[in-house]
Amino acid sequence: MRVLAAMSGGVDSAVAAARAVEAGHDVVGVHLALSRMPGTLRTGSRGCCTIEDSMDAQRAANIIGIPYYVWDFSERFKLDVVDDFIAEYSAGRTPNPCMRCNERIKFAALLEKALDLGFDAVCTGHYASIVTDADGNRELHRASAWAKDQSYVLGVLTADQLAHSMFPLGATPSKAEVRAEAAARKLSVANKPDSHDICFIPDGDTRGWLAEHVGAAEGDILDREGNRLGSHEGAHAYTVGQRKGLNIGYPSPDGRPRFVLEVRPKDNTVVVGPKEALDIAEIAGARFTWAGQAPASPETPFACEVQIRAHADPVPAVAQVRDGELVIRPDEPLNGVAPGQTAVVYVGTRVLGQTTIDRTVSAVPV
């Protein structure tokens, strides 16, 4: 099989490419240039897509013995990931840029180009597994080691994309084993730090970055009854569940801390309240997809688990498609869920599908 290996310059994608070669596939490595002005060097675990990353990927490809190319996806990345991130924050939502990158860059733009060039599959270093059922349908499942499982950020993949995807690291027990394998293969990235934070905000200052790209304007901080408690310098700087940085200036009547409950970009206000008001009884979104085969009758409520963050624990729930939305009711309230986040639905270890959250229903009405 002709396989295009996406090589980020990290240890996971390098070992995944090497394993694809050992499996007998005809492999070509490609590094995606996602920044118009890539930095020369990383700062520890911060940043990615730098010139250093590209060089690390090339060195790995040379040792593995595969052809290597750099593809410029910077314009597509800006439109589909960076601009989307800005638009979502401007609308008062909390986006997940890694989900958008997997959906629109690695498994849409990249896979589309790979298929046009005659490749059969795209291989990445994600920790997830693909299982083929008795009828030949491909399913996305958690990796064997939940501590490193990355199936959540792949929940946006469709059946067609799964049909052309490879995740050689899915059955690997630990990241330590991958690093040891890389060292044995004499790959220089064996001990390279993992990337963290948002790749296009390498200094980690999301608030400052948004202020520069969205703009700052003073607005009101309100309680749930609409009373003005203070002011802020830009609603985009706040996310649901946030406690620090409110600077209201005086305590609540009961002396308990306040948390951000809602961000209203249209009138540039932030609503705050007690922690228990963050409990959410229902989430729903119209932008949902199925990872593989859809349920036979999605309009009929079905038992599942829902995960709302990459490193959150899954929560038992009941889901159904209703009035054009995927509606999910957890058995116990979720805490601090914001529109714009992604809810991934599991049945056992299988990723059934996902939705971008459009609305939430509080478990504690005003």
Automatic annotation (TrEMBL):
ATP binds at A6, M7, S8, G9, G10, V11, D12, S13, L32, G125. Residues 148-150 are annotated as: Interaction with tRNA. SUPFAM superfamilies: Adenine nucleotide alpha hydrolases-like (SSF52402). This is tRNA-specific 2-thiouridylase MnmA. The active site is at C101 (nucleophile), C199 (cysteine persulfide intermediate). Residues 209-273 form the tRNA-specific 2-thiouridylase MnmA-like central domain. It is an enzyme of class 2 (transferase). Residues 283-357 form the tRNA-specific 2-thiouridylase MnmA-like C-terminal domain. Catalyzes the 2-thiolation of uridine at the wobble position (U34) of tRNA, leading to the formation of s(2)U34. The record marks H126, Q341 as: Interaction with tRNA. The keyword Disulfide bond applies. InterPro entries: MnmA-like, MnmA-like_C, MnmA-like_central, MnmA-like_central_sf, Rossmann-like_a/b/a_fold. The gene is mnmA.
